Description:
heterodimer; A: alpha+beta; five-stranded mixed sheet; 33 strands; 29% helix; 23% strand; B: alpha+beta; five-stranded antiparallel sheet; four-stranded antiparallel sheet; 12 strands
Amino acid sequence: MSMPPESLSTLRCEVNGEACSAHVPARLLLVDFIRDHLGLTGTHIACDDGKCGACTVRLDGAPVKSCLMLARQVHGRAVQTVEGLGRPGAMSVLQRAFSRHHGLQCGYCTPGMLLSAQALLERNAAPSGAEVRAAIAGNLCRCTGYQHIVKSVLAAATELRGETTPSQAGDASDSAPAGNWVGRSVARSQDPRLLTGRGHYTADQLPAGTLHAAVLRSPHAHARIVRIDVTKARAVRGVVDVMTGTDAAAISQPLPPTINIAMRLNQCYALATDRVRYQGEPVAAVAAVDAYIADDALQTIEVEYELLAPVTTLEQSLAAGAPRLYPEWPDNRCLEWRFTAGDVAGAVARSARRVRAQIPHHRYTGTPMEGRVALASHDASDNKLTVTMSTQSPHLARTLLAQTLGIPEARIQVITRDVGGGFGIKLQVDAEVIPCLLAIRTGRPVLWIETRAEHFLSAIHARDYVWEIEGGFDAQGRITALRAALTGDCGCDGTNRAAGAGQLLVGAFYLPGNYKVPAYEIEVIGAVTNKAPSGAYRGYGKDIANYGIERFLAIAARELDIDANELRRRNLIQRDEFPCEIITGPIYDSGDYPQLLAMAEAAIDLPQFRARQQRARAEGRYLGVGFAMMLEPSGAAVPNCIFNGYETATVRMMPEGDLMLLSGMQDIGQGVETTLAQVVADEFRVAPAAVNVVLGETQGIPYGLGAWSSRGASFGASAAVEAARRLAVKVRNIAAHMLEVAADDVEIAEGGVCVKGAPFRRLSYRDIGRAVHLWPGPVLTVPKGQEPNLEATYTWTNPIARWTPDAAGTLSIYATHASGCFAVIVEVDVETGQIGVERLYAAHDCGTVINPQIVEGQLIGGCIQGLGAVLGEELVYDAAGNLQNRGFGDYLIPTAPDCPPVEIGHLVSPSPYTSLGSKGMGEGGPVGVPPAVVDAVEDALAPWNIRISALPLSPERILDLIDTSRDKQ
Amino acid sequence: MRPGVFDYLRPESVAEAVALLGEGDSETYVLAGGQALIRQMRQRELRPRRIIDISFIAELAYVLRDAAGLTVGALTPVAVLAEDPVVRESCRALSEAAARVGDVQVRTRATAGGNVCTGWASDIGTVLVASGGDVIVRNAAGDYGIPAADFMARGARPCPPAEFIVALRFGTAPGSAFEKLSRRAVDPALASAAAFIHPGVGDAAVRLALGAVHTHIIRAETVERIAADAGVAAPAVAGALRALAQSLQPPSNPHASAAYRRRILPVVARRALEAAARRAGEGRRA
């Protein structure tokens, strides 16, 4: 099929105050005009249907979504993009407020957010918090939970009104004393570029001649591919390559496993070859000169399918005689694992009381604002592949690509610049293989940007499991034993496309939670179904464990007629019991769980709340409070898995005396670029700005594993600190040699090294850097016996990891255990079933805090993700395996007006196992909030004596529960 | 995804638009704010061959209050309706409905005329039907009015290819209100209701329209009569609303099932009726 070339028309408009003239086709969207024609890549694309607001620009001052406008519709009008608001070094008041108050994390939504907020401030100089939230309701943010964004906008309003605002946070002023950067809210180094539209996300800078890939995906959940005809697609003008699964398999290997612990592995390719196993599985791909033509070509590909019976539920998957997803397997089980410790049967039999509960949990996902993106180019002359991609781990991506493509790792370079959020979703390589194959076939750079529909269909899904828990309790309410079964839906694949099967094991190991469990038995089954792959999402099984034990204790408390918090108190591990090895093998490092619970109860002021609850009920209003403890194992070192647990850092002193830190950690919005600079700065008593942190490329950075398992504060920080300490020793030795004193007689001082007791006998780092690298050079400056360089490398691993199971099968995998207690107050409208969340309080302990504002940002954002998950987010499949949610319009992540303020209480129990006592803490919110919310809703509906089992807590489900209860009464 | 190829025409006046549309066929679409149309084109659910972009016709953006009611130009941005003091003063329900359409960015671009073309859950369409209003349509022969309830019952593409909406004419009442229940503030209605109340009795005393609870927006005439006779708070009103709900066939989607929409319809309608009655009463006392 040959289409005529599109006619172009003249577009004249003003962009950021400058006249602009271009020739554009009619169908060109404004967002593509801004990004591709004008090169203003601060305007982002995060969905395809105008629901996310990342592409917001201002048109004659008013905010609009540039993805829902044709470029030609701005003819004669004035457009403002984020680049027109301010630039690094000359940021606007609003941009500076975002930097000071941590109003951004990954930064992907930020440009649109800024333009919506700027429009508000220009028409309302003194907005309320609610007005700010309403003004940004059309700008989705997945990281921040909006709280610090609202704070930033309000602070900017105050400053713009001329009322001076004392800086409440972000105290990274140059006047601050050297040293002690750890523990301070240092402003993030990446913020100026992210706030001014100068971020470097994968799709922002394309080489000349880049082709755009589009992927054709199966409309069926389970089918055999009978025939694919790509003839018409190949004939579309502008199409350079069309590739089927058969074409791809000819030059690639199956996707390699990421994890194998008691698991059955499947064989799958990035493009299906003969059979599709979930709706959305790739079956063909196109590379064309632009994204529009790639989409045109996709429409012309004809695929004939022979439908197979879909398996869409755990029951169907595990039923005898069920259709098998993988005919070579005996059944649909991809994981079976058992663990027993202690006399469970005896303990249960002897218990004063026994409680049983079934606790199911629905399917949802992390859905970062930037979807998956990869830009590949291949040089056939030396078989070198360069892949720029949005990933949480460039090195792991390289490993997986190498195995799939059959190219040695040494010939693959993975580059990762700014990443628009991850949350576990960007840990594996699946469809990212497709642009690599197209680049190899065409010899041209190929960019693949997934659509949001592709993301929901085929990026990983998480959760979707059911617990069966039986517990014995003695007469005092102490747990005597737990007996549990955990069955999880791993979708079509929990080991290769993603590592989701492993989260069931984490759930099983940690069911004891914050409590003393003397006997424990667990059986885990993972089952495959015709659904999207199952992978990691912020929690990776810690959420499964926490939801299981907290719901179980809430249910048990009602059956035992004990206050739930009292039941918790009687079972909590006590402060003097750390380090505490629990029954399955993990070693809890430190904490004070009873104190966390006491903090949460005090924050809520229970007696006062109960009185208010009574008064409200008399008026027909239903308030409820709920609590949940939280345990967050972090910093995993997993055996038989690519996530196997080490991290390397190199610290290098440069000729100017500045430092470089090379780390395999990846900044995905959580701010390690800044926190790693802080920890290194302290070792040398310099400002964090003197530490240039280099992340995200595999050529020059030592092998490291990236951002997952909240490992930045354990692995990332400890490796950086230890490398810095080793370099500091070298620098002291060199300085002593140059000063002609003994090495023991010098010390690190502010900005250099001085003789102890003689601060004026000193060498600055610049003196040392120049002397060693340049004048006179190392021979004269480095003492004999020491390597003539100014760098040190250290590889840190989890010191309490134990991979050899004992007779019972215990293991120790996680380095640190942050903890918390969450309290939530809700109001339920019993006429409509709608739930409003009034307050959310988190008592939290992650040991030494490196950057308080970043920690708070992580915690708040995580809490709001947990809230979204339990209230509205759900991936729904119909009986035929058709996914019902394809976009942000029907996958309901929280918007700004939906979110309550999150209050935080800190407790500091340093970990003895990390270099600074810090603990990973990125996942606590989604781990701890869901059971607290469920508890609160049950409390609000106490007059109906409702027990919540199914999630999420949609208005419909709440009304059904009330009606069912009324029918019974 | 991106839209397919189409021809693009941009009339600068109503007369020019009429002339272009006269050549129209079923593959010609009128583009106003584009907040629904461009989305559908991006998904390639719609593949227009020709787009007539009327968004540059300045003469179709206005708000006019007269003795007969309130007339709103088809291209008046929804954001303007949400904030315009004349609208708020004369037709509170319209003000409230406009403020509940999508989010700020959508309201900036979305137009009054475009919103009533979005069908079964249109917020402004619900108000228009309750107000007893008309959709004013132009073709080569001139303007003519279509009663709002008829227009909203027309289905997916309410305007014939050679015609387009030039204005919405709203009835007014001393008390009016719009209620909408949605999952999140930015989402479409799970159920919506607009009520217009004239103090006193008579045929036009109470008017009630319901959105997102049936295949199209409907007037609830039986409920109106009972409410006019017995008052909006009468138990018979609640009973009639429940009976009405059972007769409707709302679609199900990930936001809510048909059963849920039927169940909350009486609650949402009652809240709209009560708010409108309260305002009608305040108007009378004033």
